[in-house]
Amino acid sequence: MSSSSSSSLSNTRSQTVGIPTTCWCGSKLTTYGAQTKENLFRRFYRCKLGIHRKTEHHLFKWVDEAIVEEVNMVDAKHNQLKEDVDSFKIYTTQHLEKQAIQFDKALIQLNSLIVDKDTSSGTNENSTIATKDTVQSPNQPSDANNSRAQLINIAVAAIAVGTMAWIYAKITN
Ligand SMILES: [Zn+2]
């Protein structure tokens, strides 16, 4: 916390962070070269009024200091953005993994239901595979099972649509 220069205007400085665009009086800022021995030709921001009315308090800021502040601000924003993207990646990956597991489960159930139906209708060449698969589920082919399979389909589709909508909302934010 050491003041960098012995400017008489130091009490009015550091009230804006980064590169200033307008003075407190509302005037546009211009850059000027300092004429003092300490800071010869060092650029600073000042409005036209401030240059002419030296007793009034108008914005004063060294250009190099303003640029350093601006770069720091951009860095901070960049880091924040990176953190956001990283956490978004982690969340999306976890979310998609969960979806994939649910989808696999639904597919297995659906598959077993289809195999059940095939075995009940009698005409099948791959009965050995069918019986192997049907061991997993209770062997009760019915309309209830069919509607359940349809519900699973709808649920999977809804989850997929929800995921896409969520990703889209997150990206466009
Ligand atoms: Zn001004």
UniProtKB/TrEMBL annotation:
Residues 119-144 are annotated as: Disordered. It comes from the Eukaryota. GO terms for molecular function: zinc ion binding. Residues 23-66 form the GRF-type domain. Residues 120-144 have a biased composition (Polar residues). PROSITE patterns: ZF_GRF. The keyword Zinc-finger applies. Keywords: Metal-binding, Zinc, Zinc-finger. This is GRF-type domain-containing protein. The lineage of its organism: Eukaryota, Viridiplantae, Streptophyta, Embryophyta, Tracheophyta.
